[in-house]
Amino acid sequence: MNTSNLHIAFWGTSRFSIIVLEEMAREGFLPSLIITAPAKPKGRGLELTPSEVKVWADAHNIPTLEPSDIRTEEFAKSLGTDWDLFLVVSYGKIIPRTILDMPHHGTLNVHPSLLPKLRGASPIQGAILEDCPVGQPHEAGVTIMQIDEEVDHGPIVAQEKMVIENWPPKASELEEILGTFGGKLLVKTIPEWIAGKITLQEQDHDKASYIKKITKQSGHIDLSDDPERMYRKIRAFNIWPRAYLLTEHGGKEIRVIVTEAHMEESKLIIDRVIPEGKREMTYADFLRGQR
């Protein structure tokens, strides 16, 4: 099938979206339009900054829409109606049913877990936080599903597993692995989906698991806690919100971000940190400065 003639709109905002888009681009299979989140204030100067996906789209000369509200009639009209397929990859907002049903072949989603396991907004972090043995091989994977009205509930279009040695990776590493894996699976799946060669598989909803909402406080670690649990948090939150310790310094409580750590004989060894208001340093140097 000549996929270059397909009229596809891609919905995405995060780094994971870009990794999938890169795999699509390698196959000469770019969307006609990209919908992403609007620019947000960032940095100390709160300068309006476009999403990473918007920057990627501009670099590839792909038109974009950055709606603040996708539920309006005005936005629906701006999309038009002659679409073959919508692809949703880490967009970050719930898309109304009326829009999901617009394309001739519906709307597909790339989800970085083996659904029905790890439904929710942060499956990569959720996978790393699971109580799995540190340093052992562990199964991960990607699911392509047809979106329905509920979160990560729709029927499975395609799913592939992989084994990752020396679990757990950092979230940034797992994002890259699963984004690449998911992009390849998507490129392989779309022609078969459009040709009607795929039979949908209902998820086993009785086996569904869900990820708790991640907040800034989720990254807090306590050195008296289980070492492997703390290590998983450090790996899971290396992008956001960052794992951190609270400690006393100069008569006040400060936050110390843990950037690198490893396990040694079942003990957590902290290697590098960023103390509040300072640059990254070794944990040994930080402790010397505390004396």
Please give a handful of descriptors for the protein shown.
13 strands, 291 residues, Rossmann fold, 2 domains, Methionyl-tRNA Fmet Formyltransferase, Chain A, domain 2, 8 helices, 7-stranded mixed β-sheet
Q: What is the helix fraction of residues, given as a range?
A: 25-40%
Order of helices and strands: EHEEEHEHEHEHEEHHEEEEH
The CATH homologous superfamily of the largest domain is termed Formyl transferase, N-terminal domain
CATH topology name of the largest domain, in short, is Rossmann fold
Q: Tally the helices: what do you get?
A: 8
Strand arrangement within the widest β-sheet reads 5-2-1-6-7-8-9
- The parts where pLDDT drops under 50 for at least 5 residues are none
- Please provide the count of β strands: 13
User: Which structural category do the helix and sheet elements fall into?
Assistant: alpha/beta
CATH class of the largest domain: Alpha Beta
Under the CATH scheme, the architecture of the largest domain is 3-Layer(aba) Sandwich
Termini separation (Å)? 68 Å
Query: Roughly what is the average pLDDT, rounded to an integer?
Result: 94
Indicate how many domains the architecture comprises.
2
Described by strand count, sense and barrel closure, the largest sheet is: 7 strands, mixed
Strand content: 25-35%
Shape: globular
